[in-house]
Amino acid sequence: MSGAIRPMPVMFNPLSDGFMEDPHPHYAEVRRHAPVHEHPGGFWMVSRYEDVEALLRADLSVDKRNAGGSAGPARPPRLKGLALIDQDPPHHTRLRKLVSQAFTPRAMNGIEPVVRDLVDKALDDLGRAGGGDLVDAFAFPLPFAVITRILGMPKIDTVRLRELTSLLIRLGEPGAGSGGKADIEAADAELLELVSDAISRKRQDRGDDLLTALIDAEDGGDRLSHDELVAQVAMIYVAGYETTVNLLSGGILALLRHPDQLSLLRGAPELDRNAIEELLRYEPPVHLARRITLRPHRVAGHDIPAGSIVLASLAGANRDEEFWGPDADRLRLDRENARRHLSFGGGAHYCVGGALARIQGRIAIGELIRRFPGLEQAGEVRWNGLLSLRGPAHLPIRL
Ligand code: HEM
Questions:
Q1: pTM, entire model
Q2: Across the chain, which distance is largest between two alpha carbons, in Å?
Q3: Does the C-beta of 356 come closer than 6 Å to ligand 1?
Q4: Which residues contact 239 (CB under 8 A, 6 or more apart)?
Q5: 210 pLDDT band (50/70/90 cuts)?
Q6: Ligand 1: which residue has its CA nearest to atom 42?
Q7: CA 346 – ligand 1 centroid, Å
Q8: Which of 261, 266, 332, 342 is the most buried (most CB within 10 A)?
Q9: Mean per-residue pLDDT for 262-280?
Q10: 309 forms bridges with which residues in the sheet?
């Protein structure tokens, strides 16, 4: 033995020290030293911007049943595997067409006044409270109210709904292990029941809203089974708030940590649109997208075998110096190409609600920082410990 110490190979490890507080240095290490990373846990991870973008556009599957190996289908799918995010063509194409009709740019334009009204009310409440936990007092209730209003959701047990969705999200995390199978099935069944009941009530009390439009699409052309309809609505409901909460709280935290950028934005409302893109790039709410190879797939000279799980590191790609330049790690609200971030994914599964999230982010963050010029952090942030939907769980603020 020569006695020389061999360096440890770089490995993606979300359990490493400090990861949850700031995972970006860790992503940078993996991207630099193992851009196409074969993980001992039985999956692959791709981190360079160019590779991630290409992967999202490639003909890969999102259906867990196609995965072999140890990281394979040990856990049951959420929403019975019927939500469009878990479906491949031709089912995906059919469902996507139907669902995206409700999210056209024109439909979204009509939503702006609704969002403004709800932001105003939420800020009035926050102002009366004088501060508190930004997540509980603002970042959560606002997107929840917006998606409930847009869907025209009948009264539903919102406390239970949130408990169930956060349980499903937690159990679906990479690294959550194969335990909790019965818990997932039970939470999934209860969530579907809750939404199914709301849909039944909506049939009796129709409105000019997204839920009625989706019900009509089912009744009219026999295109969505009842189970499929329930799964799409549950998915839109959850995706509609659990992600946007983190855009608002993570985005505001990033501004509080960069006072120069905060004051720049306060004085320049014309920057609002670009600022949301840069905040999405810098602190993306969704860090990973998962794909499964149907046949051997080549990425940057590496052969990934068929049946492999491949994680696309959206957060890693968003800070790749090769694409963004040497200041990739800096928050720069006037970054010209900020909109090219991969925080909404790419290819066939590109986020359906991107326009809605952008409207909410722009109005909520712009109004908040201008209405309360004394806004400041009033204590330590606590992160939610998730990667699929990462954000602050608690962020104490003073106004
Ligand atoms: C900041 C907020 C949001 C972020 C960061 C985000 C992120 C994403 C990402 C990364 C994907 C692609 C996942 C993949 O490729 O595997 C996705 C898909 C999706 N998102 Fe979003 N999302 C946000 C807001 C919303 C909202 C507000 C809605 C609905 C109201 C929504 C509905 C969906 C749906 C239905 C899909 C599945 C699309 C498909 O599979 O074809 N999202 N989102």
A1: 0.93
A2: 79
A3: yes
A4: 85, 351, 352, 353
A5: confident
A6: 353
A7: 10
A8: 342
A9: 98
A10: 43, 292
All residues at 6 or more sequence positions from 381 whose CB lies less than 8 Å from its CB, including other chains: 253, 392, 394, 395, 396
Say what the pLDDT of residue 225 is.
Answer: 80
Two tokens at 59? 């003909």
24-398 is classed in which CATH architecture?
Orthogonal Bundle (1.10)
| DSSP assignment of 131-193 | EEEHIIIIITHHHHHHHHHHHTPPP--HHHHHHHHHHHHHHTSTTS-S--HHHHHHHHHHHHH
What pLDDT band is residue 298 in, cutting at 50, 70 and 90? very high
Residue 34 to residue 318: CA distance in whole angstroms: 16
| Rounded distance from Cα 279 to ligand 1 centre (Å) | 16
349 C-beta closer than 6 A to ligand 1: yes
User: Is residue 73 pLDDT above 60, yes or no?
Assistant: no
Q: Considering only CA atoms, which residue is closest to atom 21 of ligand 1? A: 351
- Tens of pLDDT, residue by residue over 122-156, are 999 999 999 999 999 999 999 989 998 888 888 88
Most informative mutation of 60, 100, 101, 344 for ligand 1 (most atoms within 8 A of CB): 344
**In whole angstroms, what is the distance from residue 144 CA to residue 363 CA?**
15
Task: Kindly state if the Cβ of 234 falls inside 6 Å of ligand 1.
Answer: no
The one-letter amino acid code at 197 reads D
Closest by Cα among 174, 145, 139 to 158: 145
| Domain boundaries of the chain, sorted by first residue | 24-398
